[in-house]
Specification:
two-stranded antiparallel sheet, MetI-like fold, two-stranded antiparallel ribbon, mainly alpha
Length: 306
Amino acid sequence: MATKASRSAARLMMAPAVILLLGWMLVPLIMTLWFSFRVYLPLRGGDQGWAGFDNYTRFVSSSAFWPSIQTTLVIVLGVLAITVIFGTLIALLLDQPIWGQGIVRILVIAPFFVMPTVSALVWKNMFMDPINGLFSHISRFFGAEPVNWLSGRGIDWTINLYFTSFDLEVTMGVFSIIMIVSWQWLPFAALILLTAVQSLDSEQLEAAEMDGAPVHKRFWYIILPHLGRAITIVILIQTIFLLSIFAEIFVTTGGAFDTRTLSYLIFQRVLESQNIGLGSAGGVYAIILANIIAIFLMRIVGKNLD
């Protein structure tokens, strides 16, 4: 057992790292809160004095605020749905004995190591270009009209809930962003889920197969419950990063066609007004949104981690 002296020594050795980590997180947060209550114009003299809650009021009263919240949530939910579903399928395929299994796994994981800016440029110019893109050539080959992926043409869905239903219009630009980001994060989900699949007791599947259980029932009642914790981890980690998506939008649409997320709106507001205080107020709203979603996930989805 650890003695009191050894525990004290451990705390002493960990103290520099903990202090550095706290400073790394708290200093930017405190500065953001401070500037959010100030009129700070770096190109017009710097600090212009106290603004109170004026920056918060201006930011939330903007006509683009709530649409940016909706776009952020649509992109996050869309990417999570694609990566979890297809990540599970890829994990099951990679678990099968095939020739060159190691090489195939490396190729599947490779997109995760591509920089978001490079990935977005490749998709924009090589795949989604309406004239010379690969998707356009494929459309013409089959006699169809090429699709202008990064555009404002809308796709309508009707969402039915227990208590209400509403129409959701997603532009092709938003759909394209979801595809690009999903391609980047799909390897991460597949890798985590593959690890979970490989930890599954094969004797359970063999016993179910001998009892005559079909493939879909073996998946639904044995494999999927076993993947619950891994799916939870994928959702939690990806959500943290997807809420701050920026590079893909900046490179492809520049915030046009309803692809402006909350983080991109903050960027635009700072550039337009040259007011660091206004952008800081938007950053505080982004922190609040992230915490609300994190609490929701930990209460609803995070129960699988217990």
